[in-house]
Amino acid sequence: MVILELVIVFAAIFLGARLGGVGIGFAGGLGVFALALAGVKPGTIPFDVISIVMAVIAAISAMQVAGGMDYLVLQTEKLLRRNPKHITLLAPIVTYFLTVLAGTGNISLSALPVIAEVSKEQGIKPSRPLSTAVVAAQIAITASPISAAVVYMSSVMEGHGISYLHLLMVLMPSTLCAIVLTSLIISLFFDSKLHDDPVYQKRFKEGLISLRGNKVLEVKPRAKASVGIFLLGVLSVVAYAVISSPGMGLITTPIMTTNSAILIIMLSVATIITLMCKVDTDLILASGTFKAGMSACLCILGVAWLGDTFVQANLGWIKETAGGLIQSHPWLLAVIFFFSSALLYSQAATAKALMPLALALSVSPLTAVAAFPAVSGLFILPTYPTLVAAVQMDDTGSTRIGRLVFNHPFFIPGTLAIVLSVIFSFALGSIIL
């Protein structure tokens, strides 16, 4: 039965990968249906994760319609154009902090065209900064104070003596250092000269390469205000999470959970931006960020539900076969998170499906926290929205998917960044936790 269930799970994931986009979520639901027909009880739907993503996306979409995203892109472009030769290092740092502040990697989509453009102007393969920038945005989810993955992780680790603040004190510097070091390695040891790329040379001769130049981006009058309101909301979430954390001892009986606080604050932020910046709510529904975010919610719904259904149905078998191995070699937990995240298509969904299992196998809290960044292996399969967008935005052809599927420019920097994140998290966690 386990083999049959595994076949159903992988068949659903493969079908979802073929369909692409929101089809991944559809196929996940079909997989749950097939498992139910095989006699498996459907698992738990991660509504808490989905609701957080929806609330954050609502606030970001309102900010986008108000012009806030254009304002951030303009500031990003100014930074990159002031230091164009260092774009391979600066691009991932920019997308990292954008994602940390927004709680979703979709915000990095706005910076990718700028990164590709500046790279071309400097004769640098856009694939170098684009690949590290996409990876940085994915890993930054595990360090964002308002991401569903971190909020869930915090709620789990509170019972093991690790507070929300201590969790961020480990994850933020560890992941940032890993991203910076990865970017340096990629820029030093991999060929970054665009004119050496045969695909670029061919496309250039065919006249398929275009440069935008220094075209000035128009920003709406209230754009800066919308960004300020959103950042104030992020700070409010962090402040509440810190003071309500049992580990901090500041509030003995919090009025609500951190999950509820995020929902309330982010929806309030969306409302305030809509009122103060005079946003047309119909435009919010049509915005690219809203569409991408809601698509992500459907993907999490289907794939995470599928993963939880299989794990819960075979919990005893998994403990029996993997329990002793993980206890003897704790680093394998990061490997499991890494490959599972590519299938579950979400950092939060992966953590929710596997973290309770890991702790049930008596993995130490330090190991669980150190392995947490490994849930960011969404780049393994070249189907994730930000990855696909990076490929489409690079008209030089340097950012391309190979015939073997896995031989794409995101795999090496992504794997390296996650390995370094896990190592740094373990080292720093040994001191702080």
Task: Report the portion of residues in β strands.
Answer: under 5%
Question: Gap between N and C termini, in Å?
Answer: 41 Å
Question: Could you tell me the radius of gyration in angstroms?
Answer: 21 Å
Global structural class: mainly alpha
Shape: globular
Level of helix content? 55-70%
What composes the largest sheet? none
Mean pLDDT: 86
What's the number of helices? 20
List the secondary-structure elements in sequence, H or E: HHHHHHHHHHHHHHHHHHHH
| Uncertain runs | none
Question: How many strand segments?
Answer: 0
List key phrases describing it.
globular; 433 residues; mainly alpha
Give the helices and strands, then pairings.
Elements: H1 2-19, H2 23-37, H3 47-65, H4 68-82, H5 87-102, H6 112-121, H7 127-140, H8 148-157, H9 164-189, H10 198-205, H11 223-244, H12 258-276, H13 281-286, H14 288-313, H15 315-328, H16 332-344, H17 347-360, H18 365-371, H19 385-393, H20 411-432
